[in-house]
Design brief:
Length: 340
């Protein structure tokens, strides 16, 4: 389930005509600035750089006084989520929702944290909570299209006993399409591929996305990810070129160029450089191609070159980053079975 981050609105400070009165009060309360806003800003810088441990340290310090804002706990939950610390992600996300129950984004990320816990624990109880939070996020803010995508994906993938329903998924597809045609095409493509198991229909939707030439880079990479799964190298290259025309400096291009090189079997040297560049220049974050995935593709590349020891090293590195990477585990096991 590919999940993309939703941008969080910045606070603004507005001076009033009663400045003289306001100056007589403590600065933070008079201007409406939470006393922990500086800590949140610092933590977000660390978060965006991939320094999740640093963000947690700053936010935990802000929370230690017992008067932290809901935003502190929201970013704590997000940071623990990126660290794959499911229990602390859930705990802090629940705290943010309890403090600000009308915030759509907080409910959405609590749903994601519950989803990670449900996957880890194989828990139907946790899975039911996922749907409830996504539904609440959509109810609070119908324009939160990423929450709608999360709800669509859940209702497509989950069994009926925990709230899965293809009809409900299609309801979200239609609502997304009514709000944003490109996002609607992406939602419908995911439905065609995952719910209907009709990749040809999904491919037609992704072609419409690329033809629309959106400014949103995520749209191109979602299409590219589909083409990777279908092993359609030429279409993947077209998606990469279209994305590069919008933002040639986006670091995710290196990942997909490397993958395209491995799939084509052409210039493996350049593909290796692209994948290593991606690993070296980007933080490992849940809304971008994972570093574990990049390591697995490097392993495939080395296998194609006959470098079995190097391939095994990459698969082990991938499993260190993501113990649930089934492909890395299977390929590593197969290397062991066929070793001299």
């Amino acid at each position: 389930m590919n999940l993309l981050l939703t941008r969080f609105g910045e606070r603004r400070i507005v001076l009033t005509l009663v400045l003289g009165i306001a100056l007589a009060l403590p600065l933070c309360s008079s201007w409406g600035i939470p006393p922990d806003s500086g800590a949140v800003a610092s933590a977000r810088q660390d978060f965006n750089a991939g320094n999740y441990a640093g963000a947690i340290k700053t936010l935990e310090s802000a929370a230690s006084g017992g008067s932290a804002s809901a935003e502190v706990y929201y970013w704590l939950g997000r940071s623990y989520y990126e660290m794959h610390d499911v229990d602390d992600a859930v705990k802090n996300a629940e705290k943010s929702v309890s403090m600000d129950p009308k915030n759509s984004l907080y409910h959405q990320w609590l749903g994601r944290a519950y989803g990670a816990k449900a996957d880890r624990d194989h828990s139907f109880f946790q899975a039911r909570k996922v749907k409830k939070e996504f539904e609440q996020a959509v109810q609070l803010d119908p324009s939160n299209l990423q929450a709608r995508r999360d709800l669509e994906q859940f209702t497509m993938d989950a069994p009926g006993i925990v709230g899965g329903s293809k009809d409900e998924a299609m309801t979200q597809v239609n609502a997304i399409a009514a709000a944003d045609p490109v996002q609607g095409d992406l939602a419908r493509a995911a439905y065609d591929a995952d719910a209907l198991k009709k990749p040809d229909q999904a491919e037609a939707e992704y072609k419409q996305v690329l033809d629309a030439k959106p400014r949103n880079m995520d749209a191109y990479f979602e299409a590219a990810d589909f083409y990777v799964g279908q092993k359609k190298t030429a279409d993947l290259q077209n998606a990469i070129q279209a994305a590069a025309a919008v933002n040639p400096s986006d670091p995710r291009l290196a990942f997909f160029r490397g993958v395209a090189g491995v799939l084509s079997g052409g210039d493996l040297g350049s593909a290796e450089q692209e994948l290593k560049s991606y690993l070296a220049s980007t933080p490992d974050r849940s809304d971008w191609p994972s570093h574990a995935g990049a390591r697995t593709w490097l392993g495939k590349l080395y296998e194609a070159q006959g470098k079995r020891a190097d391939a095994a090293e990459q698969y082990r590195a991938a499993l260190q980053l993501d113990s649930q990477d089934k492909e890395a585990r299977t390929r590593l096991q197969n290397l062991g079975k066929t070793s001299p």
